[in-house]
Q: What sequence folds into this?
């Protein structure tokens, strides 16, 4: 079953962006003249035919106003932030029961549409397919990687998770915590051998710090 819904994670505080997030949530920081969340939506609009949901927490009214004239449905979290797993579970009434795309709203891509790649490589025997990238293609990212693609897929230095995936959501209901990371679900899938890794062949920039803005803009200029 090909997913037709997208969860956009947009609830973080953006504390590493320092003064840039004093009056706006991180997804509203501009890169190349566009808010970060608009870079993600540009990819989504070409692929996702069903619901698009964004979870909000920090300064939610700013994103609500920005997204008011789009088809994105917003969902405030509170009083506590629910993290990726809890946030996705909280949004399921809007997303539906099938597998869904999820995407972080603080990354910029240069190359193929990440959601198109995931859709084209999705298989019904998987519970999740994570789009990952070689550290050499990850602009401004100092980490050594999150997953070894295998087979079998395992944790360890290798490919970096980019924040885009397709995931089945049934297992979320069995996790007792209200706030939790999707890593909990991924670990269960790793044990079952149902988590897949797809390498991204373009470039990717995680705009997690102020210097990431210029790095992302330079990356986009190279691919213009």
A:
């Amino acid at each position: 079953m090909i997913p037709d819904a997208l969860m956009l994670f947009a609830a973080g505080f953006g504390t590493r962006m320092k003064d840039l997030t004093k009056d706006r949530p991180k997804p509203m920081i501009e890169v190349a003249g566009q808010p970060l969340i608009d870079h993600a939506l540009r990819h989504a609009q070409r692929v996702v035919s069903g619901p698009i949901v964004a979870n909000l927490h920090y300064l939610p009214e700013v994103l609500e106003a920005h997204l008011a004239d789009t088809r994105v449905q917003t969902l405030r979290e509170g009083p506590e932030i629910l993290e990726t797993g809890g946030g996705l579970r909280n949004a399921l009434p809007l997303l539906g029961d099938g597998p869904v795309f999820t995407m972080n709203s603080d990354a910029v891509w240069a190359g193929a549409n990440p959601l198109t790649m995931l859709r084209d490589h999705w298989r019904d025997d998987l519970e999740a397919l994570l789009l990952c990238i070689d550290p050499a293609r990850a602009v401004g990212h100092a980490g050594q990687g999150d997953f070894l693609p295998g087979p079998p897929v395992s944790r360890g230095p290798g490919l970096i998770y980019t924040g885009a995936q397709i995931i089945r959501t049934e297992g979320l209901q069995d996790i007792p915590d209200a706030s939790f990371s999707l890593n909990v679900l991924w670990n269960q899938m790793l044990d079952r051998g149902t988590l897949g890794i797809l390498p991204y062949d373009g470039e990717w920039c995680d705009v997690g710090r102020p210097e990431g803005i210029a790095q992302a803009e330079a990356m986009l200029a190279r691919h213009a």
